[in-house]
Design goal:
This protein is mainly β. The protein has 3 helices and 24 strands. The chain has a single domain, classed as Neuraminidase, CATH 2.120.10.60.
Length: 348
């Protein structure tokens, strides 16, 4: 019997994840999977880069870098393929838009996925498109280059993305004309040279989230400040262009992730970097008021070789989704989705 393409892809990914798990058991490795707290449960043993749908009932995720996009239904555990019905070169990002459609980012040309240099070039040469929420049509290209990012508004059809050599950020609104999406009101809002000289990134910046509910601010990560391993979380005021350093911690690596719906806190991947540009991180809550107040939420990095990353918050603020990561892997590579129920204090 010949299975549909989407089922074959899913079977291969599940087999790969199972092999990794069995290898860890055979080597006697102690992992966070054996010590999950009561408020955390594992949803899958494969996948990365989760994103909550507006109603909080489903989670969008990638099978892998340059993989397919899937949707996980929390109540049933059902996994729905979103991108198996058309030809593509894989995706690096997938996010829910405010209307339920998907914003995709991925390469538009063939490349050798085994070649590391080719993979990196494809990763930084992705383009944006919009996929209809029915998951039955091919995506509509937006003809915009996206190098990491993008960001999507929770309340409006508005996006932001990083482009160029990861040195510029632009915003735009989405408008549908006869059912087809297009970008309008596009404007560049930030470039590396706009950062104060004492905290200027070497080259890389990346957008992450609009701050709800008004979308007048944007969270941004600045990497390798002044040529060091230090990365900091910033808040950009879209009206004035003012930049606020949220973390102000030269001894820690911080990379902005999901944002809390009340607009008072964001999530970051955080760890002491000890001069290492890419340390093994965990998910933390970071205040947006510039106080630098941070609270650790995941503890996967307490186990040698593991990390808990890519945290995002549900629209009601009750749940956190994140992924299991491992040392020595490609940036952002995940090995399963996890769901955390937040306590009353953690929600605010």
């Amino acid at each position: 019997m010949r299975f549909p393409l989407s089922h074959r892809r899913l079977s291969v990914q599940l087999l790969f994840a199972l092999c990794l798990t069995m290898a860890a058991i055979a080597q006697g490795e102690d992992s966070p999977l054996e010590h999950l707290p009561a408020n955390v449960k594992q949803l899958t043993n494969w996948g990365e880069r989760p994103d909550f749908r507006k109603d909080g009932h489903r989670i969008l995720f990638l099978s892998k870098v340059f993989g397919d996009v899937y949707e996980y239904e929390i109540a049933t555990g059902r996994i729905t393929p979103c991108t198996a019905h058309f030809k593509h070169h894989g995706f690096t990002r997938a996010l829910y838009l405010n209307n339920g459609d998907l914003l995709l980012s991925g390469p538009v040309a063939t490349f050798d996925p085994i070649d590391k240099e080719a993979r990196q070039k494809a990763r930084s040469s992705s383009y944006l498109s919009v996929l209809d929420k029915s998951f039955t049509k091919p995506p509509v290209p937006l003809h915009e280059h996206c190098d990491e990012g993008p960001a999507v508004s929770r309340h409006h059809l508005r996006i932001a993305w990083t482009h160029g050599l990861q040195d510029r950020i632009s915003t735009a609104d989405l408008e549908y004309e006869k059912g087809a999406p297009k970008l309008v009101n596009k404007r560049q809002v930030l470039q590396v040279i706009d950062f104060p000289e004492g905290s200027r990134p070497q080259r890389w910046i990346e957008t992450q989230n609009f701050v709800p509910p008004h979308d007048k601010q944007l969270t941004v990560t600045a990497y390798e400040l002044n040529g060091s391993a230090n990365s900091e979380a910033f808040l950009l005021d879209l009206d004035s262009g003012a930049l606020t350093n949220l973390s102000r911690s030269p001894d820690h690596y911080e990379e902005v992730e999901g944002i809390f719906p009340d607009g008072k806190n964001t999530l970051v991947e955080r760890a002491e970097h000890y001069g290492n540009h890419w340390p093994l991180i965990d998910g933390w809550k970071l205040a947006l008021d510039g106080s630098g107040k941070a609270e650790r939420l995941t503890f996967f990095a307490d186990f040698k070789g593991y990390k808990g990353g890519e945290p995002v918050v549900s629209q009601d603020g009750h749940y956190l989704a994140f992924t299991l990561g491992k040392s020595g892997m490609e940036a952002g590579q995940g090995f399963g989705l996890f769901l955390m129920e937040l306590s009353g204090e953690q929600k605010n």
